[in-house]
Every structure is written in structure tokens, then in C-alpha cells.
Write a structure and sequence with these properties.
Layout (H helix, E strand, L loop, with lengths): L1 H31 L14 H5 L5 E12 L3 E12 L15 E10 L4 E9 L7 E16 L11 E4 L9 E4 L2 H8 L3 E2 L5 E3 L5 E17 L4 E16 L19 E2 L3 H7 L2 H4 L2 E2 L7 E13 L9 E12 L8 E18 L4 E20 L36 E12 L1 E5 L2 E17 L11 E12 L3 E10 L2 E8 L4
Parallel strand pairs: 9-12, 13-17
Antiparallel strand pairs: 1-2, 2-3, 3-4, 4-5, 5-10, 6-7, 8-9, 10-11, 11-14, 14-15, 15-16, 16-17, 17-18, 18-20, 19-20, 20-21, 21-22, 22-23
Amino acid sequence: MKTRITLLMLTMLMLTQIAQAQQEKERDTANLRELPFYIDPVKRMPDVDLKDKKEGTFITGLPRFEFDPIRGFGAGGNLNVFWNGDESDPFFEYTPYRHRLNAEFFVFENGRIRYAFNYDAPYIFDTPWRLRADAVFWEDPDAQYWGIGRNSINRLSFADKSEGVLGTERTFRRISDYEDNLKIAIPDGEGGFVTDFHYNQIIQREQLYNLLGERVLMGGKMRIMFGYEMLFTQFESYGGKIADEAVTVDGQSVNAINNETLVDIQKGDGTWDRFNLSGFGDDQWKFTSMLAWALIYDTRDFEPDPSKGIFLQYSHEWSVPELGSDFSFNKFMLQAQAFKTISKWKGGKRRITLAGMASLGHIWGSNINFIEMYDLSSQAEAGGILVLGGERSLRGFREARMLAPTVGLINLEMRTRLYDFKLLNQEFVLGLTPFFDAGTVWDGIDEIELNGFRGSAGIGGRIGWNQSTVMRLDYARSREGSQIFFGFGHIF
């Protein structure tokens, strides 16, 4: 009996020592990941994504080839450098990366050039602060101007030139038919020709510099953002210039002078005065100096590709001469996003996630740089949202097709992950994303009414690359035609 008791005691002592050793080992591991401040568990990456998260430093990027109905064929590329740290990093489970540097270069057939550099560092120096910085440069000889005001939601119309002369006003169902009508050249009565080929185009040059800091609260669910932006802009009209393209009614190419453009007309007919707009013409660079701030509530589990959570934001931009600005205005945006996974399989690697976003923006002031109306908010997390039309708002409508001081936008997507694989030690996920976009504009916030929304629908392909990089190919249709876009990152 004593022998049995002794053996039992020895066994219990050995098991106790083994348990204590395991506890010490787990405690040591936990200490390696001990957070310097509290982060709510809802901000932790899903286990299925965490399992495949790459450690260390790596690069993703691809050459890009695009076709744009405005600018023709384009070529360029994106390069992303990620610093992820390793599993001992206290924030490894809570951030998509510790540092990200993005570089982009693109040139189009029409001469448009864009290059950009972006830096992002969540919890920089292991503090509750996040730092973002942007430098963007571009020149676009065919930037779009479709008019400003509530009436920009109407169908396109212009004098009919199908007989080789200016006829009665005609309404066009398709934007391609509208543009074919614009480029028809008619005799000017002096042996030459005039055309309206550039009626909805302007020459745009911009340089933007942005620095933002964010402070997290409530375990990372709440963020307060402060920032400063410098924007240098220069614009020209095509009125009186030789058109890039013009044809007679029978299809013969001719040299022609461009008539007065829409921006010239609206600057002179009182439209710009009514909205207190300026910043166009005289070939001078204009300077916009802005302070920005935002309040953000965010429970998404993984920023680049969330599977659940919500994102709520109020952002505000303020520009006055006291900041050195040539302009004086305020701009705000309210935005709500929601994500819900309704089905998942293969341990969650493959899934169906419903994603939705609703945004409301408004700009007012005594002297507004007109180009600020194009951005719903340049402080939106995924970057400025060009309104209304183009690859990140109403994807079936032409870029900046609808424009006014107050803008409403809704985007709905069903994001699917259908297949995943490894190639050269890289993680890839393939999926399809049906989507629907809707939006409208108003002349002021006091004139909001729930009608006049315009919609577009489509489907996109998605390729997830090492989780933090998402490649996007979208095809969208609207009542005015169809468009194809290729880019990086979800639109929200």
C-alpha cells in the first residue's frame, strides 16, 4: 500500500511539474506577444487568414494594362513592399502589416501620366498611433467635365449634327452615340471646320501631398484622425484649340477648331457663381491648403479584405486663406460600411461575404476650388472617391458624370472566395464579386430628396495575393453603356 501511495505521489508530482513547465512555456510565449496596450479581440485577424499570413518582408506587384474609353490603352504597374514582422510581434495578429510602401506608375495612350507613392504604418513604434503619407502627381489631357448641379443626373443632350449642320436638340441614350455626335465637324463659313470633340474635356495637372495621423481608442475600435493636405492644381480649356479628332458627317477626317466647351459655358452662364466656384483657367497654379480630421468606429477583422464588422466615419476638410490657401470652403463626409459572411467552407478559406457601403458628402464655402467637388472625400480610408461615375463609385457611368455640392452613394457587393492555391510560396485566392451601385447628387444639403438615383450593375473578378493585396477586374453596365476597370484593392 505504501509503495502504491508513493508511486501515486511521484506520478502526481511529475504531472504537476510537467504542467508547471507547460504553463511557463505558454506564459513565455504570451509575453512575446504581450500587447503594450489593450486591443479588442474583434480586431484580431480570422484564424484562417492568420494561419497563412506571411512573416518578414515581401513584395507584391504586377505590370498593368488597361483600356479606358476616355484615354485609350494604358500601361504601367503597381509595386507594394510589406513589412509584416514575425509571430513574436505583439501586433502580428491585429494588423494586415506593420509597414506598407506602395508605388504606382501609369501612362495612357492619350498622354495621361500618373505616379504615386503611399506609406502606411499601423501602430507605429508600438504606439496607439497610425501614420499615413501620400504623394501623387498626374497630368490628364482629357479629364472629364460633365457639368455641375442636380441636372447632371439627366440624360445627355446636344444639338443634332447628323445632317452636317447644327440641328435641333437631341437626347442620347448611349454615351457612345453622344460622343460620336460631338466629334462631327461642320463648316465654319470661312473655309474651315469647327467641332465639339472636347466639349466635356479639360486639361488637368495636379500635385498632392498628404500627411495623416490616427490615434486608436476603445481597444482599436475607435480612431481619431488629424491631417494636413497640400494640393497644387492647374487647368486649361480646349475652347479655341485644335481638336485631337474630328470627322465630317460622311466620316472624312479633317482639321477643326474646338468650339466653346461646357466648362467655358458654365463659367459664363452663372452656374459657377451660384455654387461659389473658382480655380479654373489663366494657366496659373492654384494652391489648396487644408486641415482634415475624422472620427472613425471600426470593428472589421481585417482591413484589406474583411469578413465581418462595421466601419463608420465622419471626416471633415477645412481650407481658408489663413492656412495659405487660395480658397475658402468646408467639406464633410458621412460613411457607413458593413460586412457579413453568410457562408464559408474549407475551414473558412472559401466564403461568401456580403459587403455594403453608404456615403453622403457635402461641400460649401465662399470660394470653392471646383475640383474639390470631384472628391466625395480625399480622406476616405481607401483613398479619394471620385464622384459620381468611374471605377470606385457608379462603375457603369463615365468618370465624374454627375457632380454637385451634395452627393449620395451606395455600393453593394457579394464577395466570394471560390478557390485558393499556393504558387512559388505565395498564397492566392480567386473569387467573383457581383455588385450594384446607386447614387445621385443635389444642389444643396437642404434639397435632399429620395428620388433621381441612378444605378449600375456588374460583376468583377478578384485575386487575393498574400492577403494584403487584392487585384480587381470589374465589368459594369448602366443605361448609358458599359465599362471595364482593373485596379488594386476593394473599392471599400
